[in-house]
Amino acid sequence: MRKVEVEDMLFARDRRVDIQNSMLEKGGNECCLACLTLNIAGEIKRTPMTKMLFDRGISEFEQQGFEVVDQLFIDEFTGCEAFWLVREEAANVKKCLEEVEDSFPAARLFDFDVLNSEGEKLSRRQSRRCLICDKPASECARSRAHGLDTIKAATQRLLKDLCAEMLSEEAYEALLSEVYATPKPGLVDLANNGAHKDMDVALFEKSAEALRPYFYDAAMLGMSACTMAELRERGLAAEQEMFAATGGVNTHKGMIYSMGLLLAGMGKALTDDDIGHDKSPRQDAIVYAAGLAGEDAERMLAAARANPDTNGAGVLRDYGALGATGHAAGGFPCAVFAAERLSYYINEEKLSGGEAGALALCDSMAKLEDTNLLHRGGAAGLEFARNRASEISALPIKERIGELEKLDKEMIERNLSPGGSADMLAIAYLLGNWDER
What we know:
- The protein is an alpha+beta fold.
- The protein has two domains: about 5-130, Alpha-Beta Plaits; about 160-435.
- The chain contains 17 helices and four strands.
- It has helices at about 5-25, 50-60, 90-100, 135-145, 150-180, 200-210, 210-225, 230-245, 255-270, 280-305, 310-320, 325-330, 335-345, 355-365, 370-395, 395-415, 420-435, and strands at about 30-40, 70-75, 80-85, 110-115.
- A four-stranded antiparallel beta sheet has the order 2-3-1-4.
- Strand 2 and strand 3 (about 80-85) form a beta hairpin.
- Helix 13 (about 335-345) crosses helix 17 and helix 15 packs antiparallel against helix 16 (about 395-415).
- The termini are close together.
- The mean pLDDT is about 90.
């Protein structure tokens, strides 16, 4: 993250004026221009968190349904900027965007300017409120009522809350995308309940909804550089929240662990202020999550020796498989692979999200040492599922869905459910939403 100097901001301001003039000239008398920047105090204007807020601003603008004639986006260290040439009455655009600026706490950091066809900037009907005391912001700015550090701290609180909320929503949507992906051999999906007699899609939906507060908390814990013990304590509470929603059925216990780790890593990556570091936020998130999981692997080995009667301890003892802990400690390789395959199927092969998810799960299942399969079918069950998945992944894409439907029947007959692979698919959906912020 690069600090801005006065000269940088002057250059950005002049460039903004040039862009506005050029776009307005293109629009003639029929169009106005809407511009989005962010009010970020201090010398760091562009961070992963400000990018998330900016993306939210773009989404809020798009939801207004304006007729956009032209648009331009800038993403630089001086801050993110968006320009929309709109065929709409300028006063109406200003009214709508003013409502957006007041719609949720962090929206106070949006700065939506609207220029009419003559290049005149429209004023707000009501003045902006100060982040600190809620008085008119212009009064506090003129009197310098609050120090820069105080304003920066208030800005960070708003950003953290918004980003944790957005990550929680993305994690929730990832769980739904996973269960809706069809066909998934042996798993609950839109076609059937797989090798499960106590689960269905509606139950997974209830479970996902119950976990939303946990996902928010996991991201916030990461933002405070939590320990594994702190995350585990919240995760254990989340398990009880899940069981309360599902009537005692274990729908997402593995996801509470794996998704919680990754969300904590994402929270940590979003607040990483190591200026000039050369890793992407995604890499930072995975590295931090892997570090926490590495600590947990040692604890898990000790617990298995002390209490060898649990399912996890039995799989660890008999097969040496650490399951979700080992996979997370290794940097989620199968989830990263599944995310790559998911992106390929959606963007290159133009498949629907559900079919793309099913194929990505198959590709991942061929590689993952799935402890759910080991627990249900032993080494033979795991080998069967992996071999069949490998065979299907080698087929032409148009033949794979039919073969997955056949494999679904086979795995239901064998009572096999690749729950670990399903977890990796859900994480793949989350990684796909995360992108490189």
